[in-house]
């Protein structure tokens, strides 16, 4: 492959031959060293959709080797930040330097109208972005505006929305809030991510991913004054629509806590939500997940942020939140 970059047939057959080793466990460590060759072949022959698909499929199979991750049918059966359960979690690092990240970005831009292929490559981007190094390189090559453009265009596609929000989560949590250019780009992600959540409220997998992305954006201080109330209401809707999804409840509450830390408006929006008391919703969610320490911790964090505001604290007292806190303390005495 390296000796014949310009010959598409050589690259295609090389990728096919490499793919034949995927099921061989002993070949796996060697396949990991091939990622740069594969992505460079994709970039060199960027007009060939067939080669893009074959290269992307091989990279996905390498990354998901041995993990049982479904990459060809339904959206990945994992949740943010659970998507890190890939080969990366076992100490395997995909060789994704800045040049490889640039190759993937070129591919995304060249085939930005092909929904089926974008669904595949966005899944790949989600998997590799679980690596902090990879996330940094994707951010350096400027992939965030492209992700947002894809989301706007394919807001109806649950798999694309799931993957893109997962990548946004990774890029935001590992981002540098002191970089003004990055900050401006991330701020533009807020309305798009909110639109994803609004359009997929009943799809628990996508809603979890969007809630996580909003949480990360809140941590980076990407919200404006006009965003707090509608975003808090939207997150409450996500909790109401998916009450039994523990990961969504946890991430939704963490996102709410981050918003409340930034603005009292968000806290008041929780208390005065037009669809019912957010405090009662918190109580209901705890009783549904009383055996989940992660959910309890997120709920406690949210309540702790809310009581920083005197008016909100008085309302919470009137709704007997102390009783709920006592229950949590009894349930998790050593946490």
What does this entry look like structurally?
The protein is mostly helical. The protein has a domain at 10-66. It is built from 19 helices and no strands. The chain is elongated and about 75 Å long. The termini are far apart. The model is unreliable at 66-94 (pLDDT under 50).
Note the gap between the termini. Answer: 55 Å
Helical coverage, percent range: 55-70%
Overall residue-averaged pLDDT value:
86
Strand content: under 5%
Please tally the β strands and state the result. 0
The major pleated sheet works out as: none
With helices defined by DSSP (H or I, 4 residues minimum), what is the helix count? 19
Give the SSE order as H and E letters. Answer: HHHHHHHHHHHHHHHHHHH
Assembly type of the chains comes to single chain
List the topology elements:
Blueprint: H1 8-19, H2 28-31, H3 35-44, H4 49-63, H5 98-110, H6 115-128, H7 132-140, H8 144-153, H9 158-173, H10 180-187, H11 189-199, H12 204-219, H13 228-241, H14 246-262, H15 264-271, H16 278-288, H17 293-306, H18 310-318, H19 321-331
Helix pairs in contact: 1-4, 3-4, 3-5, 4-6, 5-7, 6-9, 8-9, 8-11, 9-12, 11-12, 12-14, 13-14, 13-15, 14-15, 14-17
């Amino acid at each position: 492959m390296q000796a014949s970059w310009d010959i598409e047939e050589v690259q295609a057959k090389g990728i096919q031959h490499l793919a034949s080793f995927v099921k061989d466990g002993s070949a796996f460590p060697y396949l990991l060293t091939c990622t740069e060759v594969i992505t460079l072949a994709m970039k060199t022959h960027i007009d060939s959709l067939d080669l893009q698909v074959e290269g992307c499929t091989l990279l996905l199979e390498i990354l998901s080797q041995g993990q049982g991750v479904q990459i060809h049918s339904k959206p990945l059966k994992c949740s943010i930040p659970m998507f890190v359960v890939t080969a990366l979690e076992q100490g395997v690092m995909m060789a994704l330097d800045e040049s490889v990240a640039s190759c993937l970005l070129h591919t995304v831009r060249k085939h930005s109208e092909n929904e089926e292929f974008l669904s595949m490559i966005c899944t790949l981007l989600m998997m590799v972005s679980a690596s902090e190094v990879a996330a940094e390189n994707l951010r350096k090559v400027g992939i965030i505006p492209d992700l947002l453009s894809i989301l706007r265009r394919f807001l109806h596609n649950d798999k694309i929305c799931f993957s893109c929000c997962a990548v946004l989560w990774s890029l935001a949590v590992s981002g540098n809030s002191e970089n003004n250019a990055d900050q401006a780009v991330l701020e533009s992600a807020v309305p798009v991510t909110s639109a994803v959540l609004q359009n997929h409220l009943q799809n628990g997998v996508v809603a979890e991913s969007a809630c996580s992305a909003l949480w990360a954006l809140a941590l980076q201080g990407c919200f404006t004054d006009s965003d707090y109330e509608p975003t808090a209401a939207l997150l409450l809707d996500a909790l109401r629509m998916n009450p039994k999804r523990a990961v969504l409840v946890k991430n939704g509450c963490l996102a709410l806590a981050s918003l409340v830390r930034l603005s009292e408006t968000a806290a008041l929006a929780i208390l005065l939500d037009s669809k019912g008391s957010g405090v009662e919703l918190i109580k209901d969610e705890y009783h549904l997940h009383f055996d989940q320490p992660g959910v309890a911790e997120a709920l406690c964090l949210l309540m702790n942020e809310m009581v920083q505001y005197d008016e909100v604290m008085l309302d919470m007292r009137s709704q007997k939140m102390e009783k709920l806190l006592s229950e949590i303390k009894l349930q998790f005495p050593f946490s």
